[in-house]
Amino acid sequence: MSPSLGYNDGDGADNDRRPATAGQGAEAPVKLAVRNVNHTFISANGKRTEALTQVNLEVRDHEFVAIVGPSGCGKSTLLNIVSGLGRPTSGEVSLDGLPMSGISHRIGYISQVDSLLPWRTVLANVELGLEIKGVPKKQRREIARSLIDKTGLSGFEDSFPAELSGGMKKRVGIIRCLAMDPEIIFMDEPFGALDVFTRETLQDEILRIWQETRKTIVFVTHDLSEAITLADRVVLMTARPSTVKSQYPIPIPRPRSAFETHLDPQFFELQRLIWKDLKSEVIKAQGGGSEKF
Amino acid sequence: MRNFSRGEAGVMLLRALLVVLLAAGWELGVRRKLIDPFFFSRPSLILADLNKILVSGEILPHLKITLKEAFIGLAAGTVSGIVVAFVLGRLELLARVLDPIMVALYGIPKLALGPLFILWFGVGIKSKIFMSAIMVFFLIFFNTYAGYRNVDRSLVNAVRLMGGSGGQILRKVILPSCVPWILAGLRAALGASLLGALVGEYIGAEAGLGWMIQSAGGMYDTTRVMSCIVLLTAIMALGNVGLKITEKRLLKWQPTE
Ligand SMILES: Nc1ncnc2c1ncn2[C@@H]1O[C@H](COP(=O)(O)OP(=O)(O)OP(=O)(O)O)[C@@H](O)[C@H]1O
Ligand SMILES: [Mg+2]
Questions:
Q1: Residue A285 to residues A57, A68, A80, Cα–Cα distance (Å)
Q2: Residue A36 to residues A59, A90, A143, A166, A276, Cα–Cα distance (Å)
Q3: Contact, A127 vs A140, CB < 8 A?
Q4: Residues lining ligand 1, CB < 6 A?
Q5: CA distance A37 to A235
Q6: Does residue B78 lie within any of the structural domains?
Q7: Which of chain B's residues have a Cβ under 8 Å away from the Cβ of A111?
Q8: A4-18, A247-261, B96-110: which has the minimum mean pLDDT?
Q9: Hey, what CATH class is A8-106+182-285 in?
Q10: How confident is the prediction for chain B on average, in pLDDT?
């Protein structure tokens, strides 16, 4: 059964170039490449934490990739490295074939923790990136307003983040990133703390955004069904020291919706298959300490 | 801005009532010979004296000088406190070197420095400004520095990821997140700035409210001393109201509950 789903084993270095029917971006050029990335944290008291080991990953143009792995395995660490925020202990990251050095305006990053500026209104938060870029006030206001309207946040332009619900804050974070019009978007467990309904609405929103913009998206989650619902390809990471364990193309046709996808017979099959693979890692991670999944 | 709720108006009324009652008790105590007016004066005399010095304008030059000293001291101390806090926040090594030195300097009773300041800057307004500024400086510095240390890294990273430069991070993230800390420092610094000016005047001056209190005290003129104290209290109350309004404007983004 695995071969029919294009199941691949190994470190993902040069396999899995042809996801079965996912279609979108299957043959597109490689946008982002992670090669032999290792990362070890050394804390102030000298404690070494080997987070990533020999991570290899390729993301194609317009592709939607979801990364799943046990808590504490190094998913955020990986995103920090590919976004240019941190440097790996060793290894290389390249963007459009060119090695990355530092932060790039072509990348948008929605981090795991809320990072809206609390003293700015919704409107001013959405404008932030454009303001930094030096876009004239009138123009950036226009862009921000149209994004706010599109996401159903109109009426909250002048509210401060503290006055918003968790789901609304996430929406603002997403459109703040979209306002900068990046080529690649990284999202780190953006919907982790939300209730199921809000979560599904936001998943639909992400699906719509992808459908409309075809941006390359790398989405970290520890919710397997969320990964399958959204992505063209699910990348599984092992427990720490983490590496890519296996990758699964998700051939569920697009355009998708969260609700419809959950009823697709392939969905259950994929979930069963990937979960079997993931389970051993989760057990390993839990055995290793107090980390939860 | 939030309008006064009925509860708040009630509290204000009770407060005014309490002050009036205390003053009445004081006045009554003096008239019944329970309180010696030589040491404590009495409210009616103080009011009459206040009226006199304000109407004749006798107090105004002194008031002006003290306010000027305190205000310039407050401004200079605040600006330098913020600047030094930001520089040390940025240069960690320097901060670690200076940390115990700053704490030691802060520990010096500023009154002890008074004669030095007079020696350096003379008996004029400059020595008082310096005294006031130095007291304000430490309060603002320690608060702002704590604020700098407390800046949310994820906000800094978010702006960095958007391509923000060092200056943009300073202006758009660090400064606004230090504002609540700076305001907390200002609350204490307001009193300190006035205290600095008065202390400077006690040590050696030719004018100012502190000088007036000093010379009235020397002549056992308790009423005049009390008048000046009432004036100082009024100034502080006004300053605090101004600060409250500023706080409400600048911190309206903070959740109220
Ligand atoms: N600054 C740091 N210093 C030391 N160790 C760190 C640091 N940041 C992360 N780690 C460690 O590296 C490992 C990977 O952390 P990371 O945050 O990348 O995990 P994650 O997969 O994103 O987890 P989660 O799903 O819970 O968000 C963890 O064991 C963590 O303790
Ligand atoms: Mg994480």
A1: 22, 13, 21
A2: 15, 7, 39, 37, 26
A3: yes
A4: A 41, 43, 49, 51, 69, 71-77, 112, 222, 240
A5: 16
A6: yes
A7: 154, 157-158
A8: A4-18
A9: alpha beta
A10: 92
What residues flank ion ligand 2 with Cβ within 5 A?
Answer: A 76, 112
Tell me which residue has tokens 């389970």. Answer: A279
A26 contacts: CB under 8 Å, gap ≥ 6: A18, A19, A60, A232
Residue A108 with chain B: CB contacts under 8 Å: 161
Facing B164 at nearest CB: one of A84, A85, A132:
A132
Closest CA to B186 of B63, B75, B66, B85: B75
C-alpha A248: how far from its chain's center? 16
Residue A152 has pLDDT above 90, yes or no: no
- pLDDT for the residue numbered A292: 45
Q: Per residue in B184-223, pLDDT tens?
A: 999 999 999 999 999 999 988 889 999 999 999 999 999 9
Q: Worst-scoring range by mean pLDDT, A3-12, A173-182, B121-130? A: A3-12
The radius of gyration of chain B's CA atoms, rounded to the nearest angstrom, is 22
Please state, in angstroms and rounded to a whole number, the distance separating the CA atoms of residues A135 and A143. Answer: 10
**Which CATH number goes with the domain that contains B199?**
1.10.3720.10
At B44, which helix (H) or strand (E)? helix B43-56
Of B152, B166, B159, whose CA–CA distance to A132 is shortest?
B159
Cβ separation of A105 and B154 shorter than 8 Å? Answer: no
Residue A68: closest CA among A290, A278, A266: A278
Residue A142 confidence (pLDDT) above 50: yes
User: Would you place residue A112 in the very low, low, confident or very high pLDDT band (cuts 50, 70, 90)?
Assistant: confident
List, for residues A8-30, the tens digit of each pLDDT value. Answer: 444 434 444 334 444 444 578 88
Q: Is the Cβ–Cβ distance between A119 and A110 less than 8 Å?
A: no
Beta-bridge partners for A218: A65, A186
Nearest residue of B to residue A82, measured between CA atoms:
B161
**Residue B163's closest chain A neighbor by CA?**
A105
pLDDT at A3 > cutoff 70: no
pLDDT confidence of residue A11: 42
The answer to whether the CB of A223 falls within 8 A of the CB of A16 is no
CA B136 to chain CA mean position, Å? 8
Total domains present in chain B: 1
More confident call, A193 vs A156 = A156
Instruction: Give the Cα separation of A258 and A225 in Å (integer).
Output: 10
3-state secondary structure of B80: helix
- How far apart (Å, rounded) are the C-alpha atoms in residues A217 and A228? 14
Residue matched to tokens 């298959």:
A273
User: Which residues of chain A does CATH 3.40.50.300 include?
Assistant: 8-106+182-285
Full domain range(s) for residue B173: 55-250
Is residue B12, in this structure, part of any structural domain at all?
no
